[in-house]
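In response to the reviewer comment on reproducibility (Comment 2.3), we provide here a single inverse folding case reported in full, input and output, so that an independent group could reproduce the run without further information from us. The structure tokens appear first.
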């Protein structure tokens, strides 16, 4: 059996996930923003779409960093499927940690992306702390995508 590439499984214009894990610290936001910008530009998103993607990644990461437990890792996973960039950002947070849908940051995420959701992984229903919170969003490219 031969080795399969991602394109064999998903088809053309699909590029597998690129993931960056860093300490949940504001000092690492610039590296995550650069990754998001590079992926969006490589995939042929327009300048305004790239700006929206970078802003959304920055807002999602910043909200999780604010709620993270000391020593937590922040993970940002980006993938492109048929002209849509999907981002998954998650970290271990203190009690709660899921952004409020009424917050300014959540409103920004909803404005610059096509879909956004947040959820908390309930691994121990008897503890209300140290839960992994996920923020996922998608941004569809308006123009013809590269490749």
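Designed residues, in position order:
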């Amino acid at each position: 059996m031969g080795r399969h590439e991602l394109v064999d499984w998903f088809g053309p214009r699909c590029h597998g996930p690129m993931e960056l894990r860093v300490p949940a610290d504001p000092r690492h936001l610039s590296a995550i923003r650069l990754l998001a910008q590079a992926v969006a530009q490589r995939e042929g998103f327009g300048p305004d779409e790239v700006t929206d993607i970078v802003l959304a990644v920055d807002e999602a990461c910043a909200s999780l960093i604010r709620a993270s437990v000391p020593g937590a890792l922040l993970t940002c996973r980006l993938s492109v499927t048929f002209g849509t960039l999907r981002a998954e950002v998650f970290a271990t947070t203190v009690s709660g940690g899921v952004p409020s849908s009424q917050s300014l940051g959540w409103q920004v995420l909803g404005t610059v992306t096509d879909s956004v959701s947040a959820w908390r992984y309930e691994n121990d229903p008897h503890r209300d702390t140290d839960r992994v919170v996920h923020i996922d969003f998608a941004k569809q490219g308006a123009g013809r995508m590269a490749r």
